[in-house]
Amino acid sequence: MQAPERMPWSGTVAVQFFGEEVTLSYDEKMGLTSGGQATKEFIGAYWEAMSRTDYQALTTQLRDHKKRLNLNDWGYCLFLYEAGKSISKGDRNCGVLFAWYMLSKSGYEVKVGYSGSQIALMITADTPLYGVLFLEMAGTKYYAVRLEADREALTSLSTYDGVYAGSDKKVSFRLPSPPRLGQTEVGRTYRFGYDGQEYQVPVKLKQESVDFLRRYPQASLQVYFAAPPSPETGRSLVEGLRPLVTGKPETEAVNILLRFVQTALNYQIDEEQFGREKSLFLEETLFYPYSDCEDRSILFSYLVRNLLQLEVIGLSYPGHVATAVRFSSEVEERDFVRYNQKRYAVCDPTYVNASWGMAIPQFKSIVPKIIATVE
């Protein structure tokens, strides 16, 4: 078996990461290439070669940049992949192996798999992932995640048996605060009508944030409900809608926000827009031309929490997602659900022109699964 080939590099590389350029100094012996190999022998040889490098010094740099860019675990996986790929002069398989090696050394429970000429990172996750090939071993699911959107999704693979002792952390997909990435601004203007008045709401988006979120695998809905947008997007969205709800009774303010989400955005199911199921983060909902029920519910819940400071929960019905709001005072009897001994009025951001307390008729008699919208 051919050993990993070393690249005669100077030991400094610039990594491009969603509009940010990161310069890394590294041990020249890390400059390995796969030559298209994707075998257990090559994987073992890569690990042995990396173990003979001064990887600790690079690990410190990588962690510093993780903190500076405010990356969550999944963001760090992507960053490690791009760093490894850059060190190996664009070699994707070595990018995957670099991420695997560094994550293992950082205490994460990860593996690698291989199929054909492709090596895949296999992670354990703190949330179920959907539409991702996984293998279950000793009761633990290892997901073969795609680190680049244009890489072919694997339908089968073999796993490398090597395990790094003491590595038991799961990769977190929670996004408690947005990463600090590039600043390419994209503008959108949303138009809607309410009570005979027409309104325009301009919103600022960040292209790099959307590009980062596009690389997310499909996770549980709570991840999307709890994730905030970039500061620029959140600020412009709230500032654009605040004058419309200020001074209004809570019920009317909720209706205004419902009408905005129901009518300012165009509806289309994920299969038609993306060819697959894809829940959208708030920033993606505002960026793409279409959205569906869970996307609108995620957006609406953010608006209710940040403009009205009211409690809101997600409602998961068979094939449909809506929300429910807890008003601060008693309101008239309409469609509602109970959660934690509290009463929440159903608010459906997809039920066009429906007001608070109005559920879609076919779901009135169904008890939904509750989705918490904050961590």
Give a structural overview.
- With 375 residues, the protein is of the alpha+beta class.
- The chain folds into two domains: 5-159, no CATH class; 185-371, C8orf32 fold (Roll).
- It has helices at 40-51, 55-68, 73-87, 92-105, 207-214, 221-226, 231-245, 250-264, 270-273, 282-287, 293-308, and strands at 5-6, 12-17, 20-25, 32-33, 110-115, 118-123, 134-137, 140-145, 158-159, 185-194, 197-206, 266-267, 290-291, 311-317, 320-326, 336-339, 342-347, 369-371.
- The chain has a five-stranded antiparallel beta sheet with strand order 7-8-6-5-9. A five-stranded antiparallel beta sheet has the order 16-17-15-14-18. A two-stranded antiparallel ribbon has the order 1-4.
- Helix 1 (40-51) packs across helix 4, helix 3 crosses helix 4 and helix 7 (231-245) crosses helix 11.
- It is elongated, with a radius of gyration of 23 Å.
- 40% of the residues are buried.
- The model has no long low-confidence stretch (mean pLDDT 93).
